[in-house]
Amino acid sequence: MDFISNWLSDYNLNSTVHKYLSTIITILFIAMICIIANFITKKIVIRIITHIVNNNKYQWDNMLLDRKVFHKLSHFVPAIIIYNFSTTFDYFKDLIEKGAITYLIIVGLLVLNSLLNAINDIYQTYEISKTRPMKGYIQVVKIIVITLGIIVVIANLIGESPVILLSGIGALSAVLMLVFKDSLLGLVAGIQLSSNDMVRVGDWIQMPKYGADGDVIDISLNTVQVQNWDKTITMIPSYALISDSFINWRGMQTSGGRRIKRSLFIDKNSISFCTDEMIEKFKSIHYLSEYILNRESEIAEYNTKNGINRSNPVNGRALTNIGVFRVYVNYYLQKHSGINQEMTLMVRQLAPTEHGLPLEIYAFSNDVRWAVYESVQADIFDHLFAVAPEFGLRLFQSPSGNDLRTMLDEPRVDGERGH
């Protein structure tokens, strides 16, 4: 300022004009220095750093570059220059220093925010991030850093020590707990979810209360994001996964098998003992030929040994069409390429209902992918629906309008009166 003032004095200017002109020139000079320094930092220094980062073997520094940590650091340079030139303006010195320090603190918070994001990105490159996500903890650190930053900014502007403001926070603790209630609940929930390994990114979860049925794509401090199968996104509060129940299908996905549990409803009126013709027919079925021969021999030996009179089918032991069909289904599943033979496999009868006799298939596919699982399940039941009549069995279904129409259209027996 003194140099510029002495330089302008050679022009014999009015004192007021001389004062304002020297101030304007000084401000322009400082602004020019800031622009040049900023240009050098961004166009030269940052480019050199970018070149070094892109041409080394490490990946973590690429995360810092992607999050623009180095770019935001460059904003410190103009603020430091302005702060150092604050003594040039005696009257505005304190105001300029406070403004420069406030700017430096804000830029520092932005740099820390980007740095924390980069740390989270680096952590996600490791396999452990799927089981122990740290995004929630990063967000807690951000809240603490931003809160402390705001306190320091306010303390700087009012010219008081930050300790004085921090001592007053105790009185505001109740208000802060109310404001950050969801964050505090989310923090506690995040710790429990992580420590108990309840949910991971990539897990398929179902939570009907929130309409969630799909893959977990993100776990943050306050919410868990679930991408449903229709590609919509459901946001679930983190603490809801602790307080409410949900289904995690990870166990199924890692087991190598997905359960098939579905029943065929057999019309009870179609269940009967096997006739000789039926037995001969069953012997020609690939899966049943050996079973029928062994079973027929076993039954004949039992009946002969116990002197059973087989003139009445009620006496002794005999094959039934439902029993043979159940054995056939079991053998069919054992030979099916889509069924996991290392897991539970059974064909069982459930309690009869008004819809018939449920014959339940309980097995596991050997592929957990949804489309493949559905294809295997459909393939099995397509076959069973088609083959059941070959055993003299009828599958039950409630009468439809077409059934009633067919019944009404049947010709009446002579002498029968319609109503």
UniProtKB/TrEMBL annotation:
Query: Where's it found, cell-wise?
Result: Cell inner membrane
- Record carries keyword GTP-binding: no
Q: Which BP terms does GO give this entry?
A: cellular response to osmotic stress
Q: What is its main location?
A: membrane
Q: What single Pfam family name could you report for this chain, choosing any that match?
A: MS_channel_2nd
Cited SUPFAM superfamilies:
Sm-like ribonucleoproteins
Determine the domain of life of the protein's source. Bacteria
- Record-linked PANTHER family: MINICONDUCTANCE MECHANOSENSITIVE CHANNEL YBDG
Its placement in the membrane is given as: Multi-pass membrane protein
The alphabetized UniProt keywords are: Cell inner membrane, Cell membrane, Membrane, Stress response, Transmembrane, Transmembrane helix
| Entry-linked InterPro entries | LSM_dom_sf (IPR010920), MscS_beta-dom_sf (IPR023408), MscS_channel_2nd (IPR006685), YbdG (IPR030192)
Tell me which residues make up the Mechanosensitive ion channel MscS domain.
Answer: 182-250
Annotated membrane-spanning segments are 20-40, 73-89, 101-119, 140-158, 164-180
Q: Which organism is it from?
A: Cytobacillus praedii
A GO molecular-function descriptor: mechanosensitive monoatomic ion channel activity
Q: Which GO terms describe its cellular component?
A: plasma membrane
Which residues are the signal sequence here?
none
The protein depicted here goes by the name Mechanosensing system component YbdG
